[in-house]
Amino acid sequence: MLMCMHNIYTVKGLWVLRSFVVYTARCCRQIFLAIVAFVMFFSLLAICTRAISSEVVADSELTPVTLQLQWYHQFQFAGYYAAKEKGFYKEAGLQVTIKNGGYDETGHAVAPEAEVLFNRAQFGSTRTDLLINYSQGLPFVVLANIMQHSPYIFLTTDKFGFNRLEDIGSQRPISLNLPNAGDDRMDAEALAALKVSKLDLSNLNNHFPTWDLSDLLLGHTQLIPAYSTDEPYFIEKSGQVPVAIEPISYGIDFYGDLLFTRQKMLDDHPDIVEKFRAASLKGWKYAMDNTEEIATLIMNKYPTRGPHYDKDFLIYEAEQIKQLMYSDVVEIGYVNKERWQRIAEIYQSLGLIETVNLEGFLYQPAQHDLWGAYKQWIQLLIIPFLIAAGVIAYLFLLTMRLKKEIRKRKDAEKKLKIQAEQDSLTGINNRYVFQKSLEQEFERARRYHHPFSLMIIDIDLFKKVNDEHGHQAGDEVLRSLARVTQKLLRNTDVFARYGGEEFVVLMPNTSIEETLALAQRILSANRQNAVLYNNIAIHYTISIGVTEILDSDTSAEEIFKRSDDLLYAAKDAGRDCIKTP
């Protein structure tokens, strides 16, 4: 009897358990279907809303806006032409007028900053000097950095025989836009690089400011400011050899062209600003993926300055711009606040600006994703569905996507930092890294009474290599010297290309006797090295100046100058040798 009752209760228990499981499964199924219906409903609602919105934009009058360029029509502004001609602006509901830059009828340079400030244009293209205007209280906002690196260079030709700013001297006629140079413009990049090179601006023969390339070709001046995307092309076409001195070699790494607006435009019409920015960046991506098509478009619809600015030039310009945009590493338009802060510090050191807060200067684009589309609806209905699997899954995917984006940005910033500190030709440290290391090592040696030594290396008769074998062969010799020398150095040594055919080696905790022994090995290894180029073995020699820190030294600059003087003493002694104090 008891056994029978036990069996009955067991069966009933199992039946109840089964009923509970079935009921729970039905409830879960209904909840799941409700979630699916919820998601599908609002997905369809969002799609319909967007479709209706697009239809309204297509049928209504487009919003007119104007973009002011800072220079004449050329590939430098290709992304904006592409956005207009391929319909990206129209898709965003915008009717865009693109105004030419350069000089007006009176001979004055067109200033995009003034055009945007007084609302004659809603958007403008300019350079990093916009930060100077912002620091003076002008309400500008950077929307996108189109070029991650500046195309600004100091340009000369090989016939003048110099490739460093330090070699300008006081007699050589130059034409730079500097304070009190007789021009209404001033280039902060030029000023910063000249300051790093320790040149006395008041002692320069800079009385002939000009952007006219013919003055350089005719020898009226020996150095002009230029863009790496433009003037070197025309020097090569003339049969001469361009020599570019880059500010980045002196640690001056500014952004190139940027897109900007004014704060009132952003406050009053944030949707228009975001649409214009997004369409412009879409245009830039298209332009860089289709350079030949856009070059043809520019020739047909945007008249250039003259017949010399032909399609071949535009293609050349496009290739140079690709290198400056660095779009294989970062997204087009990428803005790095830390990098802008570094630029601000350089401006401050030059006395061009006071301390400035960048918060209002750098635009933060809106995040248009699925969460944004559903945000208002979820706020109303979040409690019943907070634990729903669909919401949880979405939040998980959103988190993963954000983490991926953060990793991507960190990787991009790391690569940009490497590029800013690396010589692009040889892959070793650049001048900026060396100068920073020299200052740090000098302070450390003074504090802890440690020795350190310095050697400066220069290739003998390097111009002859370029003249006889061409500049590509010369570049290969520079790379080869870097490889041969690097193998002989320690991990603690700082090896850098200082400029042109000149290299430097900073050796911490090293006496001059140890450095001299290493210099002998470097001298011998390069003397025995042969660079094979076009089946021709090119041999070269080097000269080296070696010194160490002395108790009487009051600055790192004194040590460098002493080593540099010893290098020239080695040259005067017949080259292919080492000179010490």
From TrEMBL:
It is an enzyme of class 2 (transferase). This is diguanylate cyclase. Keywords: Membrane, Transmembrane, Transmembrane helix. PANTHER family: DIGUANYLATE CYCLASE DGCM-RELATED, REGULATORY COMPONENTS OF SENSORY TRANSDUCTION SYSTEM. CDD domains: GGDEF. Residues 450-581 form the GGDEF domain. Its cofactor is Mg(2+). Its EC number is 2.7.7.65. GO terms for molecular function: diguanylate cyclase activity. Gene3D superfamilies: 3.30.70.270, Periplasmic binding protein-like II. The chain crosses the membrane at residues 31-52, 377-400. NCBIfam families: GGDEF (TIGR00254). It comes from Neptunomonas antarctica. It catalyses: 2 GTP = 3',3'-c-di-GMP + 2 diphosphate. Pfam families: GGDEF, NMT1.
